[in-house]
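Colleagues,

For the teaching module next term, I've prepared a clean inverse folding example: a structure given as tokens, and then the sequence designed for it. I'd like students to try predicting residues themselves before seeing the answer, so please don't circulate the second half yet.
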């Protein structure tokens, strides 16, 4: 979740900026990485904020249970645009989901954004 920086293992907490910097319209990129967990390293997928054509910081990690999922793997290194932050949604169910899951953003993959011309 975007708000889990304070509930993240200490080795990762300083690396995650979270919802304090993510805004609707921002670009994110899924990146494979490894994180220290327990006695060693494990594969992880980070959501990296992109601004001015540069990767600025990690804002979240994909839940560990989804790492290796074909849908996630297919989208590694792709860009996505944040279209909604559930914590500020008018929909109370989305607000609850964000609270329960530690911050949720809806995104659209860039190659799936329709051409409006």
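(Answer key — instructors only)
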């Amino acid at each position: 979740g975007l708000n889990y920086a304070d509930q993240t293992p200490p080795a990762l907490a300083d690396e995650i900026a979270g919802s304090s910097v993510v805004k609707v319209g921002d670009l994110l990129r899924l990146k494979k990485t490894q994180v220290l967990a327990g006695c060693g390293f494990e594969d992880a997928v980070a959501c990296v904020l992109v601004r001015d054509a540069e990767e600025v910081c990690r804002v979240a990690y994909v839940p560990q249970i989804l790492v290796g999922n074909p849908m996630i793997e297919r989208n590694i290194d792709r860009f996505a645009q944040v279209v909604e932050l559930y914590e500020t949604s008018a929909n109370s169910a989305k607000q609850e989901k964000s609270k329960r899951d530690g911050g949720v953003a809806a995104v659209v993959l860039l190659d799936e954004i329709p051409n409006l011309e």
